[in-house]
């Protein structure tokens, strides 16, 4: 069978053969694989930010931050005083002043000043925390028209890396309680923002060094400068629970064709191959649910007589015109398409809610996570929309369980997430699942509280299932410019930098 193209995979008649232990193929569905001595799955901003602050305080030579957005005014720990945990920018300044060899580099998507939630002019004009020779904050303009730099990476001393769905910006902090009105969950202006669910991973070892190398490449490509990329050592943050040890980590990227021959479409292929590899269950958490390839694969899987159950946890609300008209409507049409294909009643799609006074309060799903059976786990920055396939830059990581210990850890993570969304103790979820052997039946038995999962019942099977007009323009899977124009532009940029 010919391998599919990155932007529109053809529909195979059956799942491609992928022997257990051989899901990851460097050069196809991942950039490379590397060993992580330890790996932690950090659920929610509060857990990630606390572990990150611990790691930052241990840095000695290099802190390299790559982001879609960045706000130096956020605090990473809200359980202690500002004196003990100062705003991020001030913390970074303190660290470089205390450590003469430490350099801090922050690379942010250039359009974050207009489109990011921080909306801060500090990214353009700078403030006091940046006024240090070993702190550099740069805006990355090296991307195709309408594209975004969407990777979320923090690499420390080349020895520890964080990546996933969480940027170091406003409106990202929350706990597993997802309270309707948490007094700690406020914007800089003092306004409440709603509950948000997200996932990040931390890992060390060879895998962290490879992500560090990629971040250094991003810095060089975005700024024209070659940072010193000599890996060191770093203690593991004690507040990051280790879920996996000595595990092979697949690193998958999306890099659009920007004229230099370094394009990559591994992330979407990785997700697709994981969906095909599932035998019993597919568990998805996604902000968007609109990618063309996603519908193509899941339609076939749901049509199989003995295919897997598919559970998707997605956001309800769409923000802004483009999200409502393209992402929101295409989500609804994809749900309709999959429900038509779901002759065996194995598909469920939900949005989590918490009590919000006299009505449900929807939880924003910002995580980008896929779990196939108890064997494959993927966390990253890639959304399940078309632009994450080949327009935006993305970085995902994945593991394949090698033994019973790893499989139990993957299953425990999936069950932990579902128990949280349902508002029930993990032990109750585990016991119910042990009886039913079905995620669908377990959810339906336990989904009875004020906190729980709400299905998209208003979306019936009648109506269009095709992408809405304008999708190829507003959610494209590739850059608009032809490669020859990108190469010409890239040569001009290189000449200007060398001048």
UniProtKB/TrEMBL annotation:
GO terms for cellular component: extracellular region. It catalyses: a 1,2-diacyl-sn-glycero-3-phosphocholine + H2O = a 1,2-diacyl-sn-glycero-3-phosphate + choline + H(+). Keywords: Hydrolase, Lipid metabolism, Repeat, Secreted. GO terms for biological process: phospholipid catabolic process. GO terms for molecular function: phospholipase D activity. Residues 1-23 are annotated as: Disordered. Residues 145-172, 361-388 form the PLD phosphodiesterase domain. It is found in: Secreted. PANTHER family: PHOSPHOLIPASE, PHOSPHOLIPASE D. Could be a virulence factor. This is Phospholipase D.
